[in-house]
Amino acid sequence: MTAAHETDVVIIGAGPIGLFAVFELGLLDLKCHLVDILDRPGGQCTELYPEKPIYDIPGLPIVTGQELTNRLLEQIKPFNAQFHFSEMATSLEKQADGRWKLKTDAGTEIIAHVVVVAAGAGSFQPKRPPVPGIEQHENAGDGIGVHYAVRKMESFRGKNILIAGGGDSALDWTINLAPLAKSLTLIHHRDGFRAAAHSVNQMRELEASGKVKFHVASVKAVHGEPGKLSGVTLAGADKTEWHHDTDVFLPFFGLTIKLGPIAEFGINLHENLIPVDTARFESQTPGIFAIGDINTYTGKLKLILSGFHEAALMAQAAFAIARPNEKLRFQYTTSSSNLQKKLGV
Amino acid sequence: MKIIGTDRQGNTREIEGRDGWSVMEILRDGGFDIAAECGGACACATCHVYVTDGWYGKLPEPSEAEIDMLDMALAVEPGSSRLSCQIICSAETDGIKVTVAPE
Asked: What CATH code is carried by the domain that includes residue B85?
């Protein structure tokens, strides 16, 4: 394991509010690391609606989720924040020196004076089909059981594979795994797919050649001892049910937001939100702040602009913790040559 | 105008719709546990409902975008599954029956 990163502030979540927090903290000379489970910045803005226009960002009458993210990245560029993408923050503990140590599922360790939770509604995780007992077949090991992502294609060689879904992931993995599978069956609730047309064409060719079987069906039950998937019960459009032997079940229904390990961090929660005060936006654990959709207080509005405001006030309070011996002077970017130097303008 | 909503626990109650609002917004404001992660942009499939009791056929056809997005929903039932952010309340939907789909 590499040595732990040491920084002023660690931010959980690289959505618009986490990104703007880098700006407000950066003006106060506080350095940041950001952790996000997604593989790119922007959070919900880029994951859910990159092309949809947003109309209520002050000064930007119309901006898409992707454009807003791009502009924020440009705005925070001078501050050289370090990003840790595709990593989930899994644990948080207080050290003897008063700082916090955050660990991720990739083994990254970040030590910081201040923790800022800007996690929106939580972390994006694969949608799990509502099939009783399905979780007993997750994490069963390479090439067996239920997987929501394909990490090692080779582990599926010679297996009986069942794929569910109608999007790009379902079709792409059908096409990629068919040549090495013992058998590959694709199921979807309709005989049509939202996936790219060329992928659908390739799948149809594989179906015509007999390499892939396709059924309009869904999984109703999973069979086998925990960790030893042996088959599933499928139900067709007319509700007819039949047994289907399989070693592997790969459901691809995209992502949904779950609170995730933040619930285990020891931060006081109210209905999966973090109560904060409205002067500092600090949780009930000193040194841990919460901004954006993840927090709650009287009058809270889940708006991006509210999160920006929260980030600015949080930064003032975070400074006092990270720099206990320094006096904070409030300055404007319009008039302060000091701030303008930091911004490189 | 009314919406008859059933939650995931099977409890049914009547809530007041508002002309021009989506059924998702009415359900959410009415305290139903419905994620609607994208806020109604037809971009996440987490406001999935079953439209029952003959109401499915009375609604305008789902758009291509909604049909595509339903591919990302779980436990889709052809002939009843809709995204509630895409059903707009009007006099024609008065009394519509919907059940929140499983997560």
From this structure: 3.10.20.30
Low-confidence residues in chain B, pLDDT < 50: none
How far apart are the C-alpha atoms of B44 and B86, rounded to whole Å?
A: 12
Domain, as residue range, for A118: 5-124+256-343
* Mutation target among A38, A46, A47, A49 for the B interface, most CBs of B within 10 A: A49
Q: How far is A168 from chain B (nearest CA, A)?
A: 10
Spatial CB neighbours of A29, under 8 Å, sequence gap ≥ 6: A342
pTM > 0.90: no
Cβ of B76: how many Cβ atoms within 10 Å?
A: 22
| Of A253, A275, A310, the domain-final residue | A253
- pLDDT for A46-71, tens place per residue? 998 888 899 999 999 999 999 999 99
Overall number of domains in chain B = 1
Asked whether residue A249 falls in the same domain as residue A134, the answer is yes
Mean pLDDT of chain A: 95
Flag whether pLDDT at A1 surpasses 70.
no
